[in-house]
Amino acid sequence: MTAVDAAELRRLTRELLAAHPPATTDRTDFLQARFDAGLAWVHYPAGLGGLDVPRSLQSVVDAELAAAGAPDNDPRRIGIGLGMAAPTILGFGTDEQKQRFLRPLWVGEEVWCQLFSEPGAGSDLAALGTRAVRDGEDWVVDGQKVWTSSAHVARWGILIARTDPHLPKHRGISYFICDMTDPGVEVRPLRQITGEAEFNEVFLTGVRIPDSRRLGPVGDGWKVARTTLMNERVSIGGSRIPREGGMIGPVARTWREHPELRTHDLHQRLLTLWVEAEVARLAGERLRQQLVAGQPGPEGSGMKLAFARLNQEISGLEVELHGEEGLLYDDWTMRRPELVDFTGRGAGYRYLRSKGNSIEGGTSEVLLNIVAERVLGLPAEPRNDHDVAWKDLSR
Fold it and tell me: What is the pTM of this model?
């Protein structure tokens, strides 16, 4: 195939638009055609939605499509699939798995969720107790997962389960793709402090998963899971936003539009947080440029740390800026939303929801350890469970 540069990408994109005019083409049909043309994620292999070109060239395609008013694939709704499941399937899936899952995932026809955390295995994820026992060509899975975003709308779940309790905890785990519509999968809502239930707990009782839906070798699931986790932290903390995008935007607008709310102390705090938000945004741009050269590294943990702290401090400032009105809350209705909408709700919602930012996607305490050990090169914390069989660990 001829080398693809920016000019060639523009030509291919214009050909797509000419053959499938956005104004008259069904949204799903257009997205499928875009995937088949290799313009979905251009750095993916040819035939899997890409053209084997640098990730940095994706902006060329996106700019042409945006100018033409082409539909996107609603990335916030399918963020777990795009940010976590897809790179893991690409890295460890068989050819059949890649062909089966990547197209409907990117188009948004199938929503994904993440079946990792458990009631007794959150920060120490490798201590998980959900079991998968081999039975012929299937694995029979029993256990419980928790804090599962989008499980109530998901068709597929990326699942890690213990397949050998006689090995140390990191070495007896395998990684599977779970059909959320299969018998034995029960999803229950977890109502949060916001009143909503975007999270769920998932009970797995005798769920049969074909061995053909295993990712990576048996017992090597922790290696596969680390790929998912590194991509998760980048997708949470390193998403592309414009200046004054994200949480700092509503606070800055309120400051400009309501001078009667201003005080010297609030001004100083807003300036400090505005600068920190801009630094984090630019650091995220640099991180995405590094991704062009390979897979995400531990730096994504630093971005996710900054994201959580900034969201909590900015939302706290916003509530204070509104004074007495900041204590009001718009709606306690129990909902099961498909996505988190930080900017579409009021200050009270942002303040309450941001409390979860330092827990989801890896607690801030765990991420501090990762940054200390893998970025700064500090000594690892002493551990006494590396060579102990999981079944012999105290719980």
Answer: 0.89
